[in-house]
């Protein structure tokens, strides 16, 4: 058995594999609008069965999960692969250079809604099974696959699906390929995500806007009410003052600190990418803030007049949108309770609305499986991957780490400019093939160690 | 000489006086759009000349002032009457029940753009001269009249006009009839206005909105920058912390305190009018806050996402609109300097824009002319007027009190529901005639004392 055979097999089958991806891409599957979802789940199931994966649709309260498995030996190492077959709506349509559901190759990239997010990466995972089996005769480990149809709708039913299928989903490692590779083009191995709590606060004043002259000092101003609350929530050094907000945060391990120190960082490149030339921090501070610290962000503040020039009013309402990115082991339900208690104490008339939440996740970096995956990715891409303890953003990764108690790694295959959620979404043709190869390498190395 | 003769003369001339008002109302004079202004100034001049007022147009950098005078004796008491012949644009047109420039009587009210604001009141003042002279043969005092054509465009050239014509405008009292009478229907004698300083603050973060997950803690949030500045500007007891903000405020005199205590106040009625049932203050606090205290109002706060649901962004900009109502002797230029110095010290990157300013004014309540006017108004309406030391809102009254150093009173003639600046603007037919009568009474009583 020689890993280079994998590349040879892929090389010979490029047209065939592309055609299979195109078939899946042409099938619409817009979860938010419930367009084509059922058809796509059935198509995916039949494609997986053709490859020899035992597949079935498992119903949820929303769109079905396509579940597949190849169980070699119940006691063998089991890799659970997660992905999603639903896509974002294609709007705005007039910005697409080719039809959004007709895969089109230009400049070495496949343009189609879902190409990068997530059908191209999901298909790479499925086709890696075919490639591996056809090359080596059989898999060295058990494979389970969970492809959900609601990822673009906040994975509304994924947690309950996982809760209800703990036995079925028993595994040793969860493996996700979603999102883009590192900006530098290097592969990524991500060990977790930040969680999120999104709230909306509404302060009300009078029943309508009043004139700021005739009524100034008489009618309360809801913008000030919100600001007076905010000043009790965060000090000028940006420390959150809500009681217990920081209580459950785990300090980074020595291993994580080491990893953070070694992460590649080009201040000027980052500054350019975020549009903030004045950015003044080193790599260590940057990655520590991004992966180990929670945020307390104002996503929107809207009150009164926002047009040109002057309008002399006292606003009747002020609305604040806030998202808090949470880090292990902050629990969004607990933080929400603490947040509400704080509001109740300081500004009981302000209304708080819960707009969404997701727990954080982090897989300890000092586990053997992390080393194995990192090695496999490194070999496959012939380039050292960027190993990061957490994404700054949020994914429902906690369903694996919290509900199933499993280690979980995210290894994205899409190019950094995949334009997911945007017009002209794409995946590099070579990214697709590299993804097939990388999954084969991961299976191979996991099988080696599990022997 | 018997004052009741005044009423008799008016009674006999009602149709004639209404026709004269209608002629003026039919002539458009929209200053903001420069529609009909010149024609209106000429029409007004000729109507005043017909009555025997020496009238001329005085050019400014904008629209002309119509200046009229009847000088009986250079040493006699001189009353300067101020008003404006320009009107607001009539939009939205489709909400008018009758054409906006065709005066129409319905339910005892004259509907027309400018009916209440200010042609109806201005015409009452002009026709009072005719009524007085025709009744008693001659005026007992000197009369000067300043009718500007830019009041609805922030009186842009009135201060320089007054500065340049100090000698011409020499007088003993300035008398203005503009705005509505008291909500209760009682007449009003107003002794001043609050000033205003309107500023816009802009805080900038990155050059574009960033994702709150991938960039949270990295990119600065301009909404927080503004809020952190605001917390240095005002404490939680609503006291403004800008150095020197309160320095020049004159305490109310004993007389003003007495007046405030006596002002009519119906908590429930006020609460209903402003749409704030929870209003919890007595009349003394209400009028003190409204007339003697400055405001520090947020008229608008706009940053980031304000639509439905959640959007996970870090705003790239935050904009704050603030108006400060100022009381004597706060100087808007001085307050602006102090405001800017504060911003420069605490948040030097925040941009401050000056959007407008007007100085406050207040005529001391313990002057004889105030008593005379109050008495005349009381007799004319057969009802005690509401004497208020200041309006909560702002008018360019300081040009008389500050630049000319004169006492100035505002006695509105329009009904409280005149709908100025709105569709279906109107003035009560009787309000118009009462206005003629009231000005006659004022002239009479001033003449009596000046004798």
TrEMBL record, chains A, B:
Ranges of residues in domain Peptidase M20 dimerisation: 192-349
Pfam families: M20_dimer (PF07687), Peptidase_M20 (PF01546)
Single annotated GO MF: metal ion binding
One of the protein's GO biological processes: proteolysis
Superkingdom, natural source: Bacteria
Cited InterPro entries: Cyt/Met_Dipeptidase, Peptidase_M20, Peptidase_M20_dimer
Keyword rRNA-binding: no
Protein name: Deacylase
The species this protein was found in: Virgibacillus profundi
Organism ancestry: Bacteria, Bacillati, Bacillota, Bacilli, Bacillales
């Amino acid at each position: 058995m020689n890993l280079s055979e994998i590349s040879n097999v892929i090389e010979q089958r490029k047209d065939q594999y592309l055609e299979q991806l195109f078939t899946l891409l042409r099938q619409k599957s817009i979860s938010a609008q419930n367009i084509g979802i059922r058809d796509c789940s059935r198509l995916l199931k039949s494609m997986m069965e053709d490859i020899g994966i035992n597949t079935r649709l498992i119903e949820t309260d929303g769109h079905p999960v396509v579940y597949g498995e190849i169980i070699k030996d119940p006691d063998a190492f089991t890799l659970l692969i997660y992905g999603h077959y639903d896509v974002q709506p294609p709007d705005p349509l007039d910005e697409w250079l080719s039809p959004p559901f007709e895969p089109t190759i230009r400049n070495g990239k496949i343009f189609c809604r879902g190409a990068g997010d997530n059908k191209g990466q999901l298909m790479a995972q499925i086709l890696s099974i075919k490639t591996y089996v056809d090359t080596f005769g059989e898999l060295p480990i058990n494979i389970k696959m969970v492809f959900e149809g609601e990822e673009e709708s906040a994975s509304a039913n994924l947690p309950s699906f996982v809760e209800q299928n703990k036995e079925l989903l028993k595994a040793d490692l969860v493996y996700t390929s979603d999102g883009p590779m590192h900006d530098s083009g290097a592969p990524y191995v991500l060990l977790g995500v930040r969680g999120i709590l999104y709230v909306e606060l509404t302060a009300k004043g009078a029943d309508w806007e009043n004139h700021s002259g005739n009524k100034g000092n008489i009618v309360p101003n809801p913008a000030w009410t919100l600001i007076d609350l905010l000043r009790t929530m965060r000090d000028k050094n940006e420390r959150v003052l809500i009681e217990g907000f920081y209580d459950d945060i785990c300090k980074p391990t020595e291993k994580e600190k080491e990893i953070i120190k070694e992460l590649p960082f080009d201040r000027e490149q980052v500054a350019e990418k975020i549009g903030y030339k004045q950015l003044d921090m080193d790599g260590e501070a940057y990655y520590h803030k991004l992966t180990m610290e929670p945020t307390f962000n104002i996503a929107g503040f809207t009150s009164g007049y926002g047009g040109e020039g002057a309008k002399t009013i006292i606003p009747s309402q002020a609305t604040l949108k806030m998202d808090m990115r949470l880090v292990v082991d902050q629990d969004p339900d607990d933080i929400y309770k603490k947040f509400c208690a704080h509001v109740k104490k300081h500004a009981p008339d302000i209304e708080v609305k819960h707009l969404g939440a997701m727990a954080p996740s982090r897989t300890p970096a000092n586990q053997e499986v992390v080393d194995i995956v990192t090695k496999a990715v490194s070999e496959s891409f012939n380039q050292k991957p960027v190993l990061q303890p957490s994404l700054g953003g949020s994914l429902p990764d906690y369903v694996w780490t919290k509900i199933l108690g499993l280690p979980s790694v995210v290894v994205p295959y899409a190019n950094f400019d995949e334009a997911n959620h945007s017009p002209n979404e794409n995946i590099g043709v070579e990214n697709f093939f590299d993804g097939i190869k990388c999954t084969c390498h991961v299976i191979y190395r996991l099988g080696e160690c599990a022997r």
